Amino acid sequence: MRAEGDQEDWTRHRREVFEAKEQALRAAREVEHERATSLIREWIARYEEAGIRPVPLRARPYRGSGTLRTSLKGWYLKQDRTLAVDAEGRYYVMRVDGGLRSRLRGATPDPAPAPLIVGRGGRDGDSFQLEELLEMRLQDPVPA
Question: Where are the domains of the chain?
């Protein structure tokens, strides 16, 4: 009987530890998102001062080719146009479902939490500091 109680205590303790770690991770992501969004908004002001106007943003389908129109206006962060920010400072991964409805009516990508390190955990050379990407766009705007 005692072993059963020990097992329940251990299981409860592990669950509490897991929940605490998950909560800390969520809080850290939220802080990172807030810092990144603040940085994006600062750079948007710089783009506007430099005369770099927002452009209509297009998304790519998960499968297939071509692009889909969106109702968004903003700036692409990468030359391949896979990442963008809109005029309100929201961050987007410009990939969407490319079904027939999206092709006819346009697509609406959802904003994603903005990271301070874009591509974290990816291949070598695929990760960038967000500030580096924002600076590159100021120096070399992606054409419309």
Answer: 2-139
Residues 58-95 have pLDDT tens digits of 998 888 788 888 999 999 998 888 899 999 999 999 98
- What is the C-alpha to C-alpha distance for residues 120 and 110, in angstroms, rounded to an integer? 20
DSSP letters spanning 9-34: HHHHHHHHHHHHHHHHHHHHHHHHHH
Task: DSSP letter for 125, please.
Answer: T
DSSP 124: T
pTM: 0.77
- Candidates 109, 107, 126, 106; CA nearest to 118 is 126
The C-alpha torsion from 90 through 86 and 105 to 95, rounded to 10°, is: -60
